[in-house]
Amino acid sequence: MNELALSDRLRAVALEIPIGSKIADIGSDHAYLPCFAALQGLISYAVAGEVNEGPFQSAKNQVEKLNLNDRIKVRKGNGLEVIEKDEINVITIAGMGGPLISEILEAGKDKLSGKERLILQPNIGAKSIRLWLIENGWELIKEHILEEDQKIYEILVAEKGNPHAPYSNEKREADLLLGPFLKKEKNEVFQKKWKHELLKWKKIIGQIDQKAQNEDTVEKRKDLMNKIQMVEEVLNDEIS
User: Which end of the chain has less Cβ packing within 10 Å, N or C?
Assistant: First the structure.
């Protein structure tokens, strides 16, 4: 992967950037995403943020190598502290766990004006992001799911709006877990992901059932059974 040939997951993130945007790529690593976006004419300006010294230097070297210093500012800092309010209108955070992405957004929400588009690619735990978006008034407007190198990734796109709009009142828990848009589309990658999760959960239940029960294991089993029921209902429903 480089600034001309992004991974499939980062290319999918890039495709959600409106042309002419000013972006902040948080956890930018080698700054491949902002460099690609600049070279493709997608953006007018970018901030590449990195908290660790090694990736920060890699990003700086990459931007300098491509003579993009006038359009891409590489800054060292934690999360959204690398940006000023109203400096950008798109935030991308890719390649982290959903809980960490939620923590970054929560810690830096004073930097958000509400005019931004959030493009978020969690490796795991997308539900925590969906919950954060609802609690903070951001409307989930698109979702994608894809497989690359035998790993499955979800991409969530949100803007300020009605945070409850994409969710069903009756199936809210399933929507939060599976994704309201992904759940309707149910593509092959979606089905593969959740069939794998079902097998994993059923194996855990089997292990729980072979041991002495306590309050924690009883609660865990109940939670897993609830998830299994939700997922099987979605996978078996050919109409929705």
Answer: C
